[in-house]
Amino acid sequence: MGSPASRKSGLIIAVVVVAAAIALGVVIYRGGAAGNRPDAASSGASSPGSVSGRNGKLSTDAVLSIAPGTGAKQAPKRVLSPTLQEYANAKSYGALYQRINASTTRTPEEQWMLAQMLERCAKSKERPREGPRWALGGDDAKARFAASLSPKDPDREKRLAAFEQINSDLCSGVGDVEVTDAEIDKLYELGAAGGDPKARAGQVRRDLMRQGQGPDGKYRFDPTKMPTITDTQVDTLKQSFASGDPYAMQAAVSTFGFPMQNLSLRVGADELPINANALYNAATLAACDYGYPCGPDSRQLLQACAMQGQCGATDYREYVFFYGSSPATSQLIGAYNVALANAARTGDWSYFTFHRGPPPNIAGYSTRP
User: What keywords were assigned to this record (predicted)?
Assistant: First the structure.
């Protein structure tokens, strides 16, 4: 047997263990630690949205207290031209395509519109479709969609109303047109020659995409043979963005997010790699301020409500911050958006470093047989 001292020590340890077990049982019985109980807020513990003790910033629980539909709205800095407004609001491109295609006096902007409609909808002679084209439209589609929603869905009526507004074939009247890449390129060329900034940005994007095509005309992804961009093209994209044309702004910055062999964007004093998805959303927000369709009747918000039940947002800003992105990505979008808004006003791109090399997510890869 051990000494009296060792027996006493063992007894003390046993008592402590039993006491701890009892305390744990009480905690479990009462519903967990104070900070995890529903009455935690009344007992002095921190609640969702409270300020943390570090740097005076909100805790991550703050996301539990936010809601869409509560932000202040700001009128856009400019309005779209009547023809561009028609393009933005079209339920179907057919009539607009027929009118512009038949015109012998197209404006540079109309050249861009025609190129966009053909690029989005027409049959490519170089790359035949591998299957039927998906499309909405008609009473049958409406009935099938309605049957897919639960009668208990609290947003059922909102979703049905949103679907009603998007239940059309946007490519109707254009989807059966056959076109070559050269014909689309020519339309962008004519628009750019006439000074349309959207067409100029489109030319750069098309060139980068063309570099990603294989000998068969199909697009391929090879991390060792990514597209390259020239200094002149970089300047073209910056100038297109500076035009204040919302479609040009969105197209220009989105193109900067392309994976390229000789260019990747870095941000801030620490020159962190750009998040391409956040950049796209920030570019769209910048375009919203200049008239890009971003309101509750925009196709993207209507589609989000109908298809995903995300019906609370009243504009694209609320949608992307509340529904479309994680809190971390939302913070990036916000920072990028501030920098882009400054670039639009002043031409200052200093927040962005235009690094002449590939981004980290492709730099380390090579191809193997």
Answer: Membrane, Transmembrane, Transmembrane helix
